[in-house]
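User: Sequence recovery, please. Input:
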């Protein structure tokens, strides 16, 4: 009887810890709307965002994906493997503006050291899997 109770308490504690980590990630991150509304304030500055991958694109010369939080969506230019749609992750990088003709994109250039992918895919502690 005591074993079942302690198992339930352990599961409840782990669930609460998982929720608390998600809240901490979203609270400490820069909101995407702030970056998009005031790009000059963030230009060439290191920022951290947290959100859900909504789209991925791989062209001949550039790879990027889009992340959405509760305030908006931004493109992330990367040299790394593209994440899966629906994946929640934290990205660190520098903001920049790409202008092509009349098109203007405020993007985040991902740091190569960004390593919080796979946070909701069962990895322990939100740690990345090592590159082999």
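Assistant: Recovered sequence (132 residues):
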């Amino acid at each position: 009887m005591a074993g079942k109770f302690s198992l339930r308490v352990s599961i409840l504690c782990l669930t609460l810890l998982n929720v608390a980590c998600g809240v901490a990630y979203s609270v400490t991150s820069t909101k995407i709307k702030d970056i998009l509304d005031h790009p000059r304030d963030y230009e060439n500055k290191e920022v951290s965002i947290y959100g859900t991958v909504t789209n991925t694109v791989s062209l001949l010369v550039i790879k990027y994906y889009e992340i959405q939080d509760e305030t908006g969506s931004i493109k992330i230019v990367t040299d790394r493997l593209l994440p899966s749609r629906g994946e929640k992750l934290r990205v660190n990088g520098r903001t920049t503006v790409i202008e092509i003709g009349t098109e203007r994109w405020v993007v985040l250039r991902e740091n190569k050291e960004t390593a919080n992918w796979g946070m909701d895919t069962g990895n322990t502690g939100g740690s990345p899997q090592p590159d082999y």
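The beta strands are 46-58, 63-68, 73-78, 88-100, 103-110.
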